[in-house]
Amino acid sequence: MKQQNTAVIVIPTYNEADNIGKMIEYLNTKTFPNIVAKKGDLTQNWDMKILVVDGNSPDGTGKVVEKEAKKYNNTFLLTETSKDGIGAAYLKGFKYAIDKLNADFVFEFDGDFQHPPETIPLMLKAIEEGYDYVIGSRKIKGGSNPKGWGFKRVFFSEFGGFVARFIMFFPFKNFFKVTDPTTGLKVTRVKGFVDKMDLDWKGDRLLTKSFGYKLQLLFETLKMGAKFKEVPLNFHVRNAGESKIEAKTAKDIFRVAILLRWYDDFTQKFLKFGTVGFIGFIINAIFLNLFSTFLNKPWPWTFSAEIAIISNFTLNNLWTFRSQQIFGPSRLIKKFFQFNLSSAGAIVIQTIFGTLAEYLFGPGNKTLYLAVIIVFLVLPYNWTMYNLVIWKNKKK
Ligand code: GDD
Ligand code: MN
């Protein structure tokens, strides 16, 4: 028996009366008939639907869609009470597609022919290969920007895309894998991804209801562990009408990228870890000086280090790794002992590499060696030990 999947092409529209009728006709008569098992490269049966989410356009876009919906029973119109932004329109559309149209996959697709309908079957093919999230990229081989774009537009698109990538993902693998973070052409698996998303567009769930939504959905979907692939997108010039992107959009997208990275669990944890380490350093220095007033060498070093270790363990347990907090006297004692061992490991690293540096480059720049060793060796070592050993997530 062949598998039957439903894919819903969600198209948000605002004043697209001159485009949307043609788009629906094109999809239904030219694109969908080719999306058939055994035709082309596809092997599964696809039930293709169209959902237009119209921001109550004054130009009669809704009327055009209504007419098409009478003609094609796979074509649906969701009219918003007002223009709430493209991001809000997509969340409303996703919800409708899942609840009412049985969607297994949802497409994000523009109504103005800038996204070539011919890319849809290529994306479905990637889905059939097992990907959860397939996006059209203008930056990979075979993809392109419109021929008519001047230097300035290309520059802003390239530069903006790179900055967004950098802020959101550097230095992790998605920085290298996501070449076109601001693309608007995507398909996402519902099961395990869109159905786990908060689709309530009201309130502050979206960092922006405008074009920056795409960065947020991208970030969230990848965070959920979606198997992800890019296919080439030849981004065309608009067929008719005008772009709804406003001048402030670039700033908005930049803001969204920063907030996504800032509020990310990993970032928050890492910042807390750094803060705790810094507090530990200060405590170490204060007690070193204090103990030196009444204790003999080497004890001020030993005791001040241990106090810093106690501080680091306590603060990390109560704050940084709060979600994996260690409770109970026997667990605490065991883990505290482990933590001391791990800290001893850091001291060994510091000793070996500090001595080595002095041997190789001379004894002159001790403070520089120390800084380099801490940043590049001790911090990564501690971070790894804390995450993988001390506060390791208990797996079920
Ligand atoms: N319902 C609704 N509400 N639809 C909207 C709204 C809104 O507030 N704003 C825009 N749309 C619809 C448009 O009518 C169009 O069908 C689609 O969303 C894309 O909007 P455009 O105004 O055509 O955007 P663009 O062409 O400037 O931007 C495109 O390129 C960007 C990358 O450079 C889009 O594909 C973006 O998604 C993409 O990031
Ligand atoms: Mn457009």
Model description:
- The protein has 396 residues and is of the alpha/beta class.
- The protein has 2 domains: 4-263, Spore Coat Polysaccharide Biosynthesis Protein SpsA, Chain A (Alpha-Beta Complex), CATH 3.90.550.10; 266-387, no CATH class.
- Helices cover 53% and strands 11% of the residues.
- The protein has helices at 17-31, 61-71, 86-99, 119-128, 151-169, 173-177, 213-223, 249-263, 265-292, 299-320, 329-361, 366-390, and strands at residues 4-13, 45-54, 75-79, 105-108, 133-137, 186-189, 228-232.
- The radius of gyration is 28 Å and the shape is elongated.
Query: How far is the first residue's CA from the last residue's CA?
Result: 35 Å
Number of continuous helical runs: 12
Any idea what the shape is?
Answer: elongated
Oligomer: single chain
Number of strands: 7
Beta-strand residue fraction: 5-15%
Q: Biggest sheet: strands side by side, in what order?
A: 3-2-1-4-6-5-7
Average the pLDDT over all residues and give the rounded result.
94
Helix content: 40-55%
CATH superfamily annotation of the largest domain = Spore Coat Polysaccharide Biosynthesis Protein SpsA, Chain A
The secondary structure category is alpha/beta
Q: How does CATH name the architecture of the largest domain? A: Alpha-Beta Complex
Question: Which sheet architecture does the biggest sheet show?
Answer: 7 strands, mixed
Give Rg in angstroms: 28 Å
- Give the number of domains: 2
